[in-house]
Amino acid sequence: MPRALVHMASLKSLTTSPTSLPSTCLILLARKPTVSHVSQLLVEKRALPIPPVIPAASPSNSTQTKATGTGSTTTLPSSSSVILPTSPSSSTPRSATPQTNLKDATMFWDYLSTHQESIHQVMTLFSDRGTPYSYRHMNGYSGHTHKWTKPDGSFVYTQVHLKTDQGIKTFTGEEAHKMSADNPDWNTQDLFEAIQKGEYPSWTVYVQVLTPEEAEKFRWNIFDLTKVWPQKDVPLRQFGKFTLNKNPENYFAEIEQVAFSPSHLVPGVEPSIDPVLQSRLFSYPDTHRHRLGTNYQQIPVNAPLKAFNPFQRDGAMAINGNYGANPNYPSSYRQLTYKSVKPTVTHEKWSGAAVHELFQEVNDDDFVQAKGLWDVLGRTPGQQENFVTNVSGHLAAAHQDTRTRTYEMFSRVDKALGASIQEKTEKQVK
């Protein structure tokens, strides 16, 4: 069975709703460089629509997790990335059956139980960390491994973490379910009103760094998105702060038309050989061309501040003068000057072998970090119980063979966990 990847993605390119806020979100992808539709759907259910802000009562009885972070959904994360508040028990993906277009718990759990290396993310999703209180009270993570380079061609591998300065707060499944019914736009309202009042949310930004030599000796495959870099092995290094201090003036112009892509990189940052990241460098711009048009980069919210590239021109809705009389090829009559760039030092022999390892069979290592998260949940009263409740309420609707395979998957994390989920699920089977 091909391995799957836990990945961070932009909701803008994933959701079918035209009113989904572009934001970072955790998602399961097939480890092959093509997006699995079934796995996308894990997140789509939790992407809340965002019409204009309408004042509503603030939620009450919110809960706050006490776990401290060690990375993007690793053994000690503070929170998942962006999973929006709906009840975990109602987080059925839009993995609709082709005949009825109805959501199907069997399809959901069939996918996960046959891609068991995704278990760490499943643990995060169905814990209270999967229903954060608001955008302001959650962390963000790069997910993919990138390379940070120097002018001399040397580089290091990196993982970026954004830790909320507002503190981690979450909903329980019951609270999230109620909020999704009472005020499904709560996330947008909370963020908009906080910025409007001058209570600007911020995130302290950290980086984990491994040299190529350290990466070769590291226990975990640095290109494996189902794994994280434990902070005890690769400590966080603070380097900045990220603050949201201005609301959009027009939702459609500045939010609906925005086009994020992992291929939008500044000098000094390069993609790693991570196969899913490599595929996304192409798939995101393709999505934007389909959604916004071939010249989406000329839309003001997406336009670079300074750029001269007469080789990229023409097409529908070209509005920037189309580079006038400049030739569309490297011409001796209009010579261009290129900034000298030294290629990064090659690391391809080891990297190629490391990527090959990603396609191996699921093994016990795929459950180690999930077990660590389960133990961390046990440090806060009620968190393990909430997890079992969230899983069982959804899994009970799946077919028997899929339920059995799922119990076995959770038992590989912790035997008592598998037994607890089985007992509570079977009591709810109709």
Question: How would you briefly describe this protein structure?
Answer:
This protein has 430 residues and is α+β, with helices and mostly antiparallel strands. It has helices at 37-44, 105-113, 119-126, 173-182, 186-196, 212-217, 251-256, 275-292, 348-357, 368-377, 383-395, 400-413, 415-426, and strands at residues 4-10, 24-30, 140-141, 146-149, 155-164, 202-210, 237-243, 269-271. It starts with a strand and ends with a helix.
Care to describe what's here?
With 430 residues, the protein is of the alpha+beta class. It has a domain of 273 residues: Beta Barrel (Catalase HpII,  Chain A, domain 1). 31% of the residues lie in helices and 11% in strands. Strands 3, 4, 5, 6, 7 and 8 form a 6-stranded antiparallel sheet that branches. It has a two-stranded antiparallel ribbon with strand order 1-2. A hairpin with a 5-residue loop joins strand 4 and strand 5. Helix 11 packs across helix 13. The longest helix has 18 residues. It is globular and about 80 Å long. The two termini are 31 Å apart. The N terminus is likely disordered.
